[in-house]
Amino acid sequence: MLVALLVLLLLAASAAALHFQRAAGRESRIAASRQLAALSEQFHGKRPRESMLLAAAAWRAAETTEARSALLSTQLQQYRGALTAGSAVRDVAFSPDGSRFATAEADGAVRVWNTRTRQPVATPPAERHLQGAMAVAFSPDGRLLASAGQDETIRLWDAATGQAVGEPLGEAFSEPPDSALVMEFFQRAGTVYDLAFSPDGKTIATAQADGQIEIWDVAAREQRGQALGDIAGESIHGIAFNRDGTLMASAGADKTVRLWQVAQRRQLGQPLRGHRDGVRAVAFGPDGKQVASAGDDGAVLIWDVAAHRRAGDPIAASSVDPVTDVGFSPDGRFLASASTDRTIRVWDVETRQQLGPALRSHVDATLGVAFSPDGATIASASADHDVTFWAATPAATPDLLPIFGIAFDPGGTLLAAGGVASTIGLWDVASRRASGEPLAGHRGAVYDVAFSPDGTLLASAGQDATVRLWDVRTRRQRGSPLLGHQGSVRALAFSPDGSQLVSGGDDGTLRLWDPGTGASVGEPIETSHDFHHEGAQPVVNAEFSRDGRTIVTSADGVAADLGVQFWSMRTFEAVRKPLAEYTGHVWTATFSPDGTHLVTGGRDQQVRLWDAETHQPVGGPLAGHTDTIMTSAFLPGSDVLATAGLDSTVRLWSLGGRPQGRAVLSGYEGWFNTVAASPDGHTIGASGGGPSRAWRVFLWETDEVLVLDQLCRNVGTDLTDAEAAQYLSGLDFDSACGRAR
Question: What percent of the chain has pLDDT over 70?
Fold first, then answer.
């Protein structure tokens, strides 16, 4: 009996020890997860590779709120992996079809790489520039690669194999039938800084240290005519052809940009002056109407070719450091610049605004930059031996004018956005690309948009006091504008069955419409009158309850006991139950998916949960935002709420059981003013911008498994052994992405 009792006590003690051991292990993993997430946030935007991998490791350690925040926030990071060459990389260029790219390296090597695998297409050949390679360029047909070097040579390579063929020093070379022409020219006048193929591929122009531009006939394997330039002995650092080959632009150490008529072989007009120091690089826009130049003065200038003068204000691409390269996106909307300050910056050509933060990962001067032919990727070359790849834009639509309303269609494939532009843009959610032309009709800003439950109609509310209905399939306006409001219309919502549409606006009224006929239903509801306001209070938010029997509205920042109102769809009268004992200023109010609760947010920076029937508070307020909450939306079919505001964050909250924060989506430095969730709850969209920021709709995937998989594919590598030892010590795994190193 005593033995049995001792055995039981021993087993109990062992079980307790195991329990405490497991509890200690869980606590240790939670602590490690939070620490890794904090490091990920610390490295965000500075050391993107480590930031992303540490977020993955944090999630693997424990699924904490901090780890989820770090993981989901990586979606705004534009880093897409890197490769390391044998020496400093001075230039990078993509082939016309984007399947390959080439690098010019300081040790004289010229390499061709497979874009998909990021591996060299062949072992670097024995042939190389005797001194450093300076620049590379593919021929328009993609068969040849040309390189320029400090050894005074131009070399041509077979772009498919990366091999140089033929004798150097300009010896005759007969082109075999149907083969790539490969040859080498010797330049006798000093370092060749840059080169460019003409659009027809028949000639190559070179920019040289002696201030001359030489043009070479590719077929004849000889220089064509006399050199151009001889700019008082000042070096020419950059050269570019326009799209039809009639003009060239050159970048000079004499602080000028010059245009040259190719056929006449003479300078066009006077030099273009504006830089305060030497000019490093030039690039023509795709339409040939503009030239961009990068200077040692830290500025990027854009020139109007026809007017022969600067177009608009300078772009301050760096405060003090030289800008080493510049390039247009294929559609001409964006401009990328590289600088010795180790950054890449992307600019909107029309507005001259920088798109997002500077892209940082290099640890030495960034020397070259290039867009991929599809415009989706930017490659940067650096003195740190790396070529780094970036998504050309964040996980968002291209930049827009300020946006006021967004909505997903019921299928989750389309996103509608309306704003200052007076049009409604439709975007493919998967590709982030425009889906057809914008819907035009409003005169003035578009303040809100809403899809009908069956997805056949899109409603829009405008500054022109109209509501308009659009056929989603044909992209045409259906019928005439819906008239009645006496001012801007700011809020729209379809009833759950799609039989009614409600609108609210600056005149303080709610109006109901039959979407099928466009007819007004009943008399307008005077929202302000019912509470004896002096003057109308603009209705900025309106939403049906899930059963369609009630509409909740919020006014323009008015105290909640007056500004949040409930309206019976049976009587069209106010339900006189203001939110109990709360007078905070509310900007957003939304029903939970099951209709049992209402959530509000506003100037007090807190999320509040209310009983939808009694209007009594449920639990205490949820704190986290540090500025006004402007907008909110539930993820369909869940208890997860998304809120966004002026503190540059989108926050997720779990409101089931004990309400608590779920994640903070950070990494953007502007305001958020509207948020929406896709019907399947997998995607959150939020429009963001500000006085000095271009406006965009940012999109986040919410499934952590999918985000983790995409993150690991984007980075392409894992933590090194040294990094794993540093960051993952004490954990039972040594790989952020679970792959062999």
Answer: 88
In whole angstroms, what is the distance from residue 662 CA to residue 647 CA? 17
pLDDT bin (cut points 50, 70, 90) of residue 350 is confident
- Residue pair 694/704 in contact (Cβ under 8 Å)? The answer is no
CA dist 229 to 73, 150, 201, 250, 475, Å? Answer: 51, 19, 22, 10, 54
Domain limits, the chain: 28-78+708-741, 403-702
Query: Which tens digit of pLDDT belongs to each residue from 408-465?
Result: 999 999 999 999 989 999 999 988 888 999 999 999 999 999 999 999 999 999 999 9
Taking the C-alpha atoms of residue 470 and residue 477, their distance in angstroms, rounded to an integer, is: 4
Check pLDDT > 70 for residue 22.
Answer: no
Across the strands, what pairs with 346? 336
3-state secondary structure of 708: helix
Is the Cβ–Cβ distance between 318 and 303 less than 8 Å?
no
Beta bridge partners of 338: 325, 344
- Main-chain phi, psi angles of 51, to 5 degrees: -60, -45
- Looking at residue 170, its pLDDT comes to 32
**CA 414, CA 451: separation in Å to the nearest integer?**
10
Q: Which DSSP string do the residues of 44-82 spell out, in sequence order?
A: TTTSHHHHHHHHHHHHHH---HHHHHHHHHGGG--EEEE
Q: What is the total residue count of the chain?
A: 741
What SS3 string covers 630-647?
A: EEEEECCCCCEEEEEECC
The SS3 of residue 41 is helix
Nearest to 642 by CA among 689, 670, 674: 674
Helix axes 704-715 and 65-73, enclosed angle (nearest 10) = 50
H/E stretch holding 686 reads strand 683-690
Looking up tokens 């960034």 gives 366
Dist. CA 166–CA 203, nearest whole Å? 19
Strand boundaries in 224-314, DSSP class E: 228-229, 236-241, 247-252, 256-261, 266-273, 279-284, 290-295, 300-304, 309-310
Query: With contact defined as beta carbons under 8 Å apart, do 443 and 462 qualify?
Result: yes
| Domain at 403-702: CATH architecture | 7 Propeller (2.130)
Do 647 and 627 form a contact (C-beta atoms < 8 A)?
A: yes
In angstroms, the CA 89 to CA 109 distance is 10
What is the residue whose two structure tokens read 């200052």? 420
Element spanning 707, H or E: helix 704-715
Tokens 């780094």 correspond to what residue? 388
Of the candidates 456, 452, 514, 464, the residue with the CA atom closest to the CA atom of residue 489: 464
Looking at residue 170, the DSSP 8-state letter turns out to be T
DSSP 8-state symbol, 315: B
Output phi, psi for 533, to 5 deg: -75, 150
Q: Give the separation between CA 218 and CA 77, rounded to whole angstroms.
A: 43
Find, among 100, 650, 159, the residue nearest to 379 by Cα. Answer: 100
473: which 2 tokens?
């399939």
If you average pLDDT over residues 530-557, what whole number do you get?
75
- Which pLDDT tens digit goes with each residue over 121-157? 977 666 888 889 999 999 999 999 999 999 888 999 9
CA dihedral sign of residues 407, 478, 545, 589: positive
Q: How far apart are CA 269 and CA 647, in angstroms?
A: 51
Q: How many CB atoms lie within 10 A of CB 2?
A: 6
Spatial separation of the C-alpha atoms in residues 708 and 72, rounded to whole Å = 9
Non-local (6+) Cβ contacts of 671 within 8 A are 630, 645, 646, 648, 688, 689, 690
Rg (CA), the chain: 31
Whole-number pLDDT of residue 432: 82
Residue 214, pLDDT > 70, answer yes
Q: Across the strands, what pairs with 653?
A: 641, 661
* CA 700 – CA 672 distance, rounded (Å): 14
Q: Where are the beta strands (DSSP E) in 38-126?
A: 79-84, 89-94, 100-105, 110-114
